[in-house]
Amino acid sequence: MAQLVKQKTIPTLYNMSSSQAFVILWALEEVADTHGIKYNIKNLPRRDPNTAKELKALFPIDKSPIVTLEPVDDEPAQTYQVLPNVLTESRLILQFISDNYTTGEWVPKSSSDKSRDIFFQELAKCTLILKVNFCVIFEVIPTFLPFGLRHLILLLVKPVVNHFLDDLRDIYQVMEDSLDEERPWFSGEKIGLADFNMSFAMDMAVQRGYFDPKRYPKVGKWYESILERPAYKRALEKGGEYDLTVFA
Ligand SMILES: N[C@@H](CCC(=O)N[C@@H](CS)C(=O)NCC(=O)O)C(=O)O
Predict the structure, then answer these.
(1) Cα(206)–Cα(163) distance, rounded to whole angstroms?
(2) In a shared domain, residues 130 and 173
(3) Which domain, by its residues, includes 174?
(4) Does any domain span residue 155?
(5) What angle is formed at CA 201 by the lines to CA 87 and CA 224, rounded to 5 degrees?
(6) Index of the ligand 1 atom closest to the CA of residue 93
(7) By the 8 A CB rule, do 64 and 14 touch?
(8) Domain of residue 187, CATH code
(9) Nearest atom within ligand 1 for CA of residue 91
(10) CA 64 to CA 67: how far, in whole Å?
């Protein structure tokens, strides 16, 4: 263990299966191991109607992940976002974990790595995930249609999906060109927030067949190194189903 961090809050992660909550679970497993961070997890099955109710009771936008914070040592409740002791939005939850449950090891040292880290956080959460989601939506719509119509609509939407897959190739190329021996992480020399933020969109792209590691070997190697991390593996064991090939 690197160095114990004194926690002011104990987080509880509301983890809907096969959702972005997985990256929060992975990050919490990392800091549990390196800094002795204690956290609770509540696994919620994606297809259970009570899941949305349970999330809604915590925050009006009933999406996963949501994290609640239990103050320790009579620390007063704090409003970090808009409700006391409630965190949402995975990028911000990851930032909170870095700020509160690490000793700063996810913050890049050099100013060039800092700029790169911020760029890739933005790319991950605004551009990459958007294009991946467009592919998913256009692929999924036909599956809700009656059998006869399904194939026709699938044929019609195929060019649209191909358009977004083309967009994705440009994004992967920028990612590929940024990685090298000295900077094997999107955050630069060391793993950092950009890498955590990239992971969900890449999990989805890989699981759904939108990413070809042979065309982007450095990104493929980066992705494999994420999967090999003991904390990622433990998160898979603790979090329940993580299948991004099935929608809803
Ligand atoms: N911007 C949010 C997105 C949260 C979100 O949309 N979560 C999805 C799962 S990945 C969800 O809860 N979907 C359930 C639904 O739409 O009913 C974040 O980054 O945390």
Answers:
(1) 18
(2) yes
(3) 111-229
(4) yes
(5) 115
(6) 20
(7) yes
(8) 1.20.1050.10
(9) 19
(10) 9
Pair (125, 60) in one structural domain: no
Q: Give residue 127 CA to ligand 1 midpoint distance, Å.
A: 16
| Shared-domain flag, residues 126 and 225 | yes
The ligand 1 atom nearest the CA atom of 19? 10
Tens of pLDDT, residue by residue over 48-73, are 999 999 999 999 999 999 999 999 98
Residues having CB closer than 6 A to ligand 1 are 16, 19-20, 63-65, 89-90
68 plus 130 within the same structural domain? no
* Burial group, residue 124, by CB count within 10 angstroms (0-12, 13-18, 19+): buried
Which is nearest to 23 in space by CA: 241, 235, 240? 235
User: Same domain, yes or no, for 207 and 128?
Assistant: yes
Q: pLDDT tens, 178-228?
A: 999 999 999 999 999 999 999 999 999 999 999 999 999 999 999 999 999
CATH number at residue 82: 3.40.30.10
Distance 182 CA to ligand 1 centre (A): 34
CA 23 to CA 142: how far, in whole Å? Answer: 29
| Token representation of residue 84 | 């006391």
* Alpha-carbon gap, residue 8 to 147, rounded angstroms: 54
